[in-house]
Amino acid sequence: MVILSLLKIFNFPTKIEISKMIMETKIRLMAQNTANIYAINKNNISMKNFSSKKFLPRVTLKDNYVCDEILVKVKQNHQLQEGVQRIKEIMARKLQECCHSEELVIIDAIQRLNLEYYFRVEIGVALRKYYERFDTEERSHDLHNTALRFRLLRQRGYNVSADIFRKFKDKNGNFKQELGNDIKGLLSLYEASNLGVPGDHILDSAGDFSRHLLRNFDSVEPYEASIIQNTLSLPCHKSLPIFMAADFLQNFEISMNLLHGCSCESRWMEEIRNLARIDINKNQMTAKHEVNEICRWWEELQLPKEQKDTRNQPVKWHMWSLACLQGPHIAESRLELTKAISFIYIIDDIYDIYGTLDELTQFTEAVNRWECVDFDNMPDNMITSLKALFDVTSEICLKIYTKHGFNPEKYIRKLWAEFCDECLVQAKWIASGYMPTTEEYLKSAMAQDHILVMYTSSFSWVKNLQTKSAKNS
Predict the structure, then answer these.
(1) Where would I find the Terpene synthase N-terminal domain in this sequence (predicted)?
(2) In angstroms, rounded to a whole number, what is the distance separating the alpha carbons of residues 56 and 36?
(3) Tell me, what's the pLDDT at 15?
(4) Spatial separation of the C-alpha atoms in residues 234 and 191, rounded to whole Å
C-alpha cells in the first residue's frame, strides 16, 4: 500500500501496469538470452559446502569493455536533432494527409530501430487517432494493414477487439486459404497473435495458422527465409529493440520490403535509416562509458574479494538497466539501477550458498532493523555485504533527494526487508525439504520480485525522464 500510494503521488503506473511491465521485461530478456539460469544446491542451506555450486567464469575487465577514455559529445549531435525534426514533420504530414497504412509502417520502423523515445508524443497522437476510429473505419480487407494496426494499438495498451480478424475467416470458421500466399500479411498476423489475452481464441488460431504457413514456405529467397525465421523466433512484442536495432538496420531495405512492401526510394526511409545510424553509434558510446563506470564501481566495492564464489558479472547486470531505462540522456539512472541489481544477485547468493539457516535468520533480522549490530555469529563476508547494501542504498537515496527533494529511503528499506524475508522463507523450505503449493510459491515469488526493487530504486529518475521527454518533444 505504501508503494502504491507513492506511485500515485508521482502519477506512476498502477500495480497491474507495473506487473505487466515486469512480465514483458522478463519475457523479452529471456527471449534475448541476456540472463543465465543458475542451479540451486539444496544442501548449501544447512551447511557451507561452497564448492558444489558452479557459476559461469567471472567477467574480466578487458579493453573492449573498459577503457579510460572520456565520453565526448558525439559529432553527429546536430545531425541527430535535425533528423528527428525532419521525421516529425513527415509524420505530421502523413497524419494530415490520412496516409493510414504508411503512417503505421513509419511507426513500426521507428520502434524496430529503437528510436521511439524521440517520437513518443507523435506516436501517441497518431495511435490515439486510430483507436478512436477503430470501430468505424476498420473496413479494410488487407490482412497486413489490419494486423499491423491491431498490433500497434495493443502494444500501446489500447483494448481493441480481436474480432476484426473474423472477416478473414470462411464460413467454416477457418482462416481463408488464399491468405497463404500473402507473406507480408502472414508476418503481420503472426506478430499480432503474440498480443493475445485470455479469451482471445481467434488470436490463438491466427498464430497457429500463420506459424504453420510461414514455416512451410519453400519458394522464398534465402534472405527472405532468414527474416521469416527471425520473426518466428523473436516477434517484436517479445524482443528488445535496443538489442535488435543494429541487425535490423543492416538489412533495413530488404526487411522493410518483405514486412511492409516499402520501396527504398521513400524519403522517410532514408531519413529514418540515417537517424538510426547516428543513434546506434551514440548509444554504443554511452553504453561503453556506462560499463566502464559500473565496473570501476564494482571493483572499488571489493565484494568479489570477500565472496570469491559469488557471481561477478557487472556487465551482464547492466543489461537489465539498458532494457528497463532506454535513452542516452538517462545514463545516471541506469548506473544507479545497476547498483541495486548487483545487490539482488549478491543477496541471492548469500541465501543460496553462503549462510546456515541461523546465519540467514540473523542476516534477515539485520536488514529488517537496518542496523549493523549484533554480528557475533555472522561471517565476515555477510557483514561486509550488509554494510555495503546500507551504504549504497543511502548513496542512491541521497542523490534522489538532492535532485528531486524527496528521500525514498524508508520505502526502499521496506522492499529490501520484504525481499530478504521471502528469501528466508524459501531457504527454510529447501532446508526442511518442504514442497510448497503453487499458491504458496507464487505468493512468495511476487513479494520477492526482483524487478519491483529495481523499479522502486529508480522511480524518481523515471519520472524525470518522462518530464524531459515531454519537453524535448
Answers:
(1) 74-217
(2) 9
(3) 42
(4) 9
Cell 555472522 -> residue: 378
CA 59 to CA 144: how far, in whole Å? 45
Find the Cα–Cα–Cα–Cα dihedral 56, 57, 59, 65, rounded to 10°.
-100
pTM of the model: 0.77
Return d(Cα 383, Cα 390) in angstroms, integer. Answer: 11
Per-residue cell: 403: 535532485
Pair 190, 212: CB distance under 8 Å: no
Determine the Cα–Cα distance for residues 374 and 149; give it in Å rounded to an integer: 61
Residue 20 pLDDT greater than 70, yes or no: no
Q: Tell me the three state secondary structure of residue 158.
A: coil
Work out the end-to-end distance of the chain between its first and last CA atoms, rounded to an integer number of angstroms: 34
Q: In this structure, how many other beta carbons lie within 10 angstroms of the beta carbon of residue 395?
A: 12
With cell 544477485, the residue in question is 345
Residue with the three cell numbers 558444489: 52
- The predicted-structure confidence for 361-389, as pLDDT tens digits, reads as follows 999 999 999 987 767 778 888 888 999 99
What is the rounded average pLDDT of the residues 382-402? 90
Amino acid at 200: D
Cell of 285: 558510446
Q: What residues have CB less than 8 Å from 397, skipping those under 6 apart?
A: 407, 408, 409, 412
Contact at 8 Å (CB) between 150 and 160? yes
Tell me which residue of 137, 238, 156, 227 sits closest to 186, measured CA to CA. Answer: 227
CB 119 within 8 A of CB 110: yes
Q: Which residues pair with 175 in a beta bridge?
A: 169
Copy the grid coordinates of residue 294. 559500473
Three-state DSSP at 175 gives: strand
Residue 338 CA, chain-centre distance (Å), reads 14
> Bridge-partner residues for 169, per DSSP?
175
Rounded Cα distance between 425 and 351, Å, is 10
Mean pLDDT in residue range 213-231: 89
Arithmetic mean of pLDDT, 63-78: 50
* pLDDT score of 195: 95
